[in-house]
Amino acid sequence: xxxxxxxxxxxxxxxxxxxxxxxxxxxxxxxxxxxxxxxxxxxxxxxxxxxxxxxxxxxxxxxxxxxxxxxxxxxxxxxxxxxxxxxxxxxxxxxxxxxxxxxxxxxxxxxxxxxxxxxxxxxxxxxxxxxxxxxxxxxxxxxxxxxxxxxxxx
Length: 154
Prior knowledge:
Blueprint: H1 2-23, H2 46-67, H3 76-83, H4 98-106, H5 136-148
């Protein structure tokens, strides 16, 4: 008798906790806080972007690097221009900025910005200043290619 009562009590408690979680009234895990973006409607539905944004960015990267296709629907530059915080003008400068808030929540490292700028470009590039096409890294790369190429004989 006591065992049956205990089982029913635990079942009722479990169902009430489950119902509360389903209704969204209580959550044991806080959701990420994301500042409002500059832009309007995203290029894909939000639930799709949460799951697949890295696939879109990698596909666009391949199209850009291998095919020279720039400025397409899923470009990182467009994402940064739209999602940069109005307060910091960045996607990574503060814990509530667009990329950092979700990536911190999911414990996923953001590795895009070792090369790419975290703020909308003032000019025509989205490269980090250290790897800008006209910067020191690009100049060094050009010099290395020139040294590696065969010299033309007169």
